[in-house]
Structure formats: C-alpha cells, structure tokens
C-alpha cells in the first residue's frame, strides 16, 4: 500500500510542478477551493502537528471541515506553489493516515483530491486502476452520507474493472469517474451511461 501512496504523491507532484500560476488559482472540484487550496489541505499533515490541528478544530467548535477550510485558505496565502510541491514530494513516503482510515484512507485522500485537481483542469490523467480499486473497495453507505452523494436506487458499475456498488438502475462508467460521483463530485458527463 505504501508503494501506491508514494507513487500517487510523486505523480501528483510532477503534474503540479508543471502548472502555471493561472492553473494553481483555478477552481478545483472541491467547492470553493482553488487547486492551491487543495494542495495546502493535502500537505497539512506534513507541515502541522496533530495537536495544532486539534486546537484549530476546537476553535471551529469541533467542526473539522470548517477548521480545514480555514487552514487551507491561510496556508495557500502564505506558501508559494513551489513550497507546496516541495512539501508533497518530500513527503511522498510519509506514513500519515487520517484518523481511523489507515493506509487505504491515506491513499483515498490523495487519489480523490488529485482527481479534484486534474479533472477540474482538464488534465487527462487516468489514475492506475489498482489504486482506484483500493479506494472504491472502501466505499460504504457511510461514505455516501459523508460526501452527501445521493445515489439511492442506483447501482454503480465500473466498465474498466470488476466493481459494483448499490442496488437499482445501473449507471456505468470508468471507475475513477464513478469514484468522483461517490465523493459528491461531478464526473465528465459523457463518461457515464
């Protein structure tokens, strides 16, 4: 699993290093966040001690998403794009995992936010299927609630790997586009049938 995490972070750093300032400031698929906000968020665990994140969450009344938004905006304003890429690359093998998520959770975090950037920018990057499969295998009804993804009465069927989820009317498409749907994002419309 660490090999997949390291590869995902390294590949993302290479893409990010090639972006222009306009692309860094472009909207991502994360509502209200630019590409730079997303990378400030994904690199937070490598730059800030857990105790500080807990304190910031307490300042936000225990709402992690509120604290995360505030920290991403603050850090995106304070750090250069080069600094953010350097932090990501230097921590490609960092063992950080989200609370209760383990290594699969860390990979999920990286893959999903990577898609938030590449899809929004129109970069034709296909995440290796073995990585997408690991992330999709962790999808539960709780995942859908967390992301507020309304997929009631829908059966998701990947066309490029052996994965299905849910019951109801089939919705087929590439695995990474279904992952976007599960995470409450909008995949390229032409990719689903």
Automatic annotation (TrEMBL):
SUPFAM superfamilies named among the record's database cross-references: DinB/YfiT-like putative metalloenzymes
Residue span(s) of domain Mycothiol-dependent maleylpyruvate isomerase metal-binding: 6-87
Coiled coil, from the record: none
Short name of one Pfam family: MDMPI_N
GO molecular function: metal ion binding
Protein name: TIGR03083 family protein
């Amino acid at each position: 699993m660490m090999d997949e995490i390291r590869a995902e972070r390294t590949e993302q750093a290479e893409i990010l290093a090639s972006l222009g300032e306009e692309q860094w400031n472009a909207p991502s698929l994360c509502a209200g966040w630019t590409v730079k906000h997303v990378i400030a968020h994904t690199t937070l665990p490598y730059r800030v001690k857990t105790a500080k994140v807990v304190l910031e969450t307490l300042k936000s009344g225990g709402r992690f998403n509120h604290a995360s938004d505030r920290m991403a905006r603050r850090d995106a304003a304070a750090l250069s794009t080069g600094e953010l890429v350097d932090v990501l690359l230097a921590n490609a093998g960092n063992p950080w995992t989200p609370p209760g998520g383990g290594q699969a959770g860390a990979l999920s975090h990286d893959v999903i936010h990577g898609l938030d950037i590449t899809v929004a920018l129109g970069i034709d990057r296909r995440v290796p299927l073995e990585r997408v499969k690991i992330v999709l295998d962790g999808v539960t009804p709780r995942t859908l609630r967390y992301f507020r993804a309304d997929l009631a009465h829908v059966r998701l069927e990947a066309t490029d790997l052996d994965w299905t989820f849910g019951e109801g009317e089939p919705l087929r498409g590439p695995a990474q586009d279904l992952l976007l749907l599960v995470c409450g994002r909008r995949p390229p419309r032409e990719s689903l049938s």
